[in-house]
Write a sequence for this structure.
């Protein structure tokens, strides 16, 4: 690649722009993973991530991508032939279903239009109808990275409870954790799946399972073979700060720093910042006369916005123009949305001016690619950010 | 300082945003400055910087700030009591004059309005009147960092020649080198003064003197004491890649990388990029209904734009609001312009979206600070960048 | 931890001392793993690692520790109830056996004394006796990290061939790859398991499966469920430089640099260097009057040396003293060797003076910990290194 | 340069091995040197360095090499024609004399044998004889980097006082500060000159003047022209954390970290560590049957040891062999000692095993280069370090 002046705008919905503090924290010699210095680190990160998940319980850290944590959630809790309830909220829900099927899980996969989240009433209805409790788990993607739709996990929880059903609740927070309000304990989630490369602002390479006592109990009796992903193998050495096999030490250095950054900013502020940037982005989208994919305002995502292309225009052609001319990466439409939407990531280490730089890139790209649109998207976003900011200042 | 999410926008006219490639190049152990590995490095940087200055002659590299290179230019060429011709183009011309006076130089300092560059006809006139050639040097700040005005050095050269005057031509390119077209040899400059922290994209800590044979000859007979800045002491070990005292090795690592980046992009493209960003910025300024300080279009600066505040509004209050709310640093008005202008740096490692992020910060800041202005600046900049980009694409 | 002056000596047998070049290569922003810049990187690393494995075939790269690559080798080739032949060469052979058993593999685990490698004649005998070819794989740990014994894979291959047995050959090279001569294709290995944090000089977090056509064929019909580790899912996107899920991008940056370093030095030189350092270490051990654990000179390890403690002396007490007084980490005795041996890692990014610094730390540590020994170990190592060096110089 | 495995041993007496903590601290974007974040940094470093100098007064920080700080000490305190008293303790004393002469200072330069420090009685005698107080300053190199001899500054102070002479005391601590006990205030030093690249563990590029009230008073009336080095220009903005011209911001990041490291270790421990390593080195030298250049035990240097070559053997040939074979840089003999001594730096970020690695390199190098010597140097050093360590442990 020829040299390009300036910093690339990485506005896919993850991996996100890794902040210098995290990169520098990782840029240190690896240490003995069985020595006392590591032990201190191990304890710090194992304890430190808990509030990010909203849990007082255990969080397992894998040297793996998020897909590995998906697999871990399944192989530790389910058995071949088990039924699970899932909803087709988008590409990643579909992929998780596919993964589960590989392990012999029978998936009740309720079709969806990829513009809505998990419908709580459908959860309740399916579970009520499952009188024999053959459904062992409800598996929900909290924030569908392919669509920018955030399912309302508390309502899913309430639906399960209303149905009086004992199913486990497994939730994928890969693109929500550290960006969108999430509470493992309070919402009664049994396994929370997460990854390092989104709201946690790390490079990819770590993934997580936060686990409830109920999930842990399930892992004692379920019948899927496992070793790398085995919770019990992990929990034992974790108790003293160690890991059963070589951990990804340098990513743990980064994790410690990333958690510190989230705590310094304050999780509530982190979530509010993401919400504000998401709303500014949606106003820009409407300013351009385009449509946000997410059809339900209560399910708008704080971490990304998927934008629908006008008929007859290819999102990938637009993305290519924007990458070439403005050195910005946007997310592609995935699966059945290929070519039909592009996705703007506004999560992780981000601020107002970077968001607006992003939106100017989209606005100019729409012109450059000959996509019909109105001007004024950036202006609408600025107007919102100014006002929101003014309101916040007044409240201080 | 509390943690702020996202990357700071450092849009002062230098130090500029140091690119990761340069930071990473510097992030290496220091080596023996008398050993063979250093020798290779020394030769590479001493040779490598020459095209950036547009010279085939010697470039001296000091472990020092630009102010040191100002001093070096003087103590190597002039003697106490010498007269020099200078023009009050702004704050830095004034500071350089002050520095020269400290060394007993008598400065003919032609007053100016801080909105224009060096007037070539005045150069010619002053030199013609100096029949006894008591003026030993004409000292010009190529790009006045305090005003965003770029003096036309080729016209100054022509004026000196037209007057048939033997004065040396000393030029400060601290905020132009690597950003604005500059040619030490072709323009007949005798000493070019430069620093590392602007167009060269390095942290501060290196500065430069590119020197002509005529300047070198002057250094053999002038009468100012010197040691650290002495050219002759430098040139001898430089011939084999070494330095007379410990050089700033890690900054030299960065210099090698920065020169490589400039060459990869191509100096002509670098200058064109700066011009394009400067024009976009001026269009934004006019879109806001504000005035660019530089009064002469032929002297617009490619590296920064100074913007005049409406009467009764304080530029520093505006800058404070922008720093607090939008995490962006802008340049203050200096000297007699304090509070009356703010300066937008658009030099160094930069691109369209970062420029537009910068301009959105100014536009929102004007609102937030209650500075009367029109909306539409950012839009005007986008329109220009799109069009300019389209033109460039057409030309490809 | 209180500040300690100077650089820690990380002389465990991995993770190894990550060189600055690799750390700096990783210290860069993560890029879009679906974009063209990543594609170039993906192709480079997928192609670049092949010569390190001595293969022209495919190498799978996992975002995982070596344990994951162990699991991958099994779940892609074997089925529940399959029999495999393994040898108790040490702790890691035992752990791999345990892992296989978790997946329902029946392990013929031939007992060993932890001082020898895999006996080729026993391989042949077991396979000859297996007339029905119920044994599906021979699983060998090339270099036993727990003992410093290197099994002779070419002899194992010859034994399998001599028995005319169709078993797959799976080899763990976690602590040999990039340190000890290894040839996946030439030696007819079917699956080579490797990790990033030893001879490859990277932090932990990547692991590898190099696979033969025969192994790939086995993966088409075997019956272990898998998703994260699935070769076929990997190979398809790998063909164009991509990965089926988010790869550990920053570790791939490091991998590219590490492979470049190995190639610059030359693999033959890399192996010779490790052999030379291993021999120097053994001479030191004998100089101290202590015994090397490895009982067979033809099986001495190039990457680490396990040293037996005199009876009645605790290796962990010695290691603690050395860590506290001399800031050096040594490897512990593992499993049945706990407390009885300590292990000196001399692999990865290493040189003569660092090795000797290491050996001085052991020699002084023996004194400090009151372990009976003779002086003269370091001197013997120096004598060998000087002479070996002289020989090499003469040969140049 | 071809790739060499392992870390280079940089054992010249500065620049020293820059620790990762310092490199990483510097590896951050440059900030606005006129903004509030810089102000905090400026205050921290200006205050933080004071205890390292042993002063409660002002320390000036220059973006320059140590040579610049030499010049600064002179141009701020002396006037052309002033007489100063200096002693020929080695190469750097000679260079400082030369520099002073450039500025018209008349140097009484008492000859020396380059094996002793400044003789306090000679100081007293010269000053007593200077009844008219024509000598304006006594200029002393605390630790002669060219010889490894440390002059006893407290005795020099006492000599000046005994003579009742008002001369200023200027001391160069370039290779002692942060390594050898030094107390600006307590010893009544007027200007302390220092640099960043030795005991301060930074890359080169910063230098220092710690100044007494008496020195400051002298600067108000002395008659050497100056601007870059002017104390008064510095002190004014320093009072609020700023600098009169662009400071070397990234080196200041490093300075903050380096000072933190010195404080964490404790200055007394830092000095004791250097002394201990110096004694171990001298024992090694004697073990080899070679001679330490420093002839006076009370003047042994804690930061480096200069070793005399046997007659007829060239130190530079030895150094070349050691660099080529063992990848270690040692210091050359300078000036009249060229080829006759080599210098071992044992200062800065260093520890026992790195020192012993260094000494093994020298011992093997002596063999490789055919320099007559005895074995046993390394062994003697080990014996000392063990014992010293045991003593320290006993004391704990």
């Amino acid at each position: 690649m020829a040299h390009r002046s300036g910093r690339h705008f990485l506005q896919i919905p993850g991996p996100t722009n890794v902040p210098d503090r995290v990169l520098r924290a990782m840029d240190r010699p690896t240490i003995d993973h069985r020595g006392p210095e590591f032990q201190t680190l191990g304890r710090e990160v194992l304890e430190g991530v808990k509030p990010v998940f909203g849990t007082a319980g255990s969080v397992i850290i894998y040297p793996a991508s998020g897909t590995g944590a998906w697999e871990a959630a399944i192989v530790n809790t389910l058995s071949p032939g088990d039924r699970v309830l899932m909803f087709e909220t988008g590409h990643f829900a579909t992929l998780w279903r596919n993964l589960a099927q590989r392990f012999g899980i029978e998936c009740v996969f309720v079709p969806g239009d990829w513009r809505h989240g998990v419908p709580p009433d459908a959860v309740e209805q399916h579970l009520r109808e499952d009188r024999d409790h053959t459904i062992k788990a409800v598996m929900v993607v909290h924030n569908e990275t392919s669509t920018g739709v955030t399912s309302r996990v508390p309502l899913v929880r309430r639906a399960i409870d209303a149905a009086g059903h004992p199913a486990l609740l497994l939730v994928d927070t890969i693109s929500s954790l550290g960006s969108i309000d999430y509470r493992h304990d309070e919402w009664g989630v049994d396994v929370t799946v997460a990854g390092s490369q989104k709201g946690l602002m790390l490079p990819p390479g770590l993934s997580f399972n936060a686990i409830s006592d109920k999930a842990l109990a399930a892992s004692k009796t379920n019948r899927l073979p496992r070793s790398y992903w085995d919770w019990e193998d992990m929990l034992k050495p974790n108790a003293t700060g160690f890991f059963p096999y070589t951990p990804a030490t340098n990513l743990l250095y980064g994790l410690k720093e990333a958690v510190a950054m989230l705590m310094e900013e304050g999780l509530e502020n982190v979530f509010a910042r993401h919400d504000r940037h998401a709303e500014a982005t949606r106003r820009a989208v409407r300013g351009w006369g385009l449509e946000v994919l997410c059809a339900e305002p209560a399910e708008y995502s704080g971490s990304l916005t998927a934008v629908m292309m006008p008929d007859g225009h290819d999102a990938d052609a637009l993305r290519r123009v924007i990458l070439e001319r403005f050195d910005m990466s946007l997310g592609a439409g995935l699966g059945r949305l290929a070519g039909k939407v592009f996705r703007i990531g506004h999560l992780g280490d981000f601020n107002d001016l970077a968001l607006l730089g992003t939106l100017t890139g989209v606005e100019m790209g729409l012109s450059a690619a000959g996509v019909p649109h109105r001007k004024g998207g950036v202006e609408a976003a600025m107007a919102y950010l100014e006002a929101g900011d003014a309101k916040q200042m007044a409240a201080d």
Residues 20-263 of chain B form a domain with the Aspartate Aminotransferase; domain 2 fold (CATH 3.40.640.10).
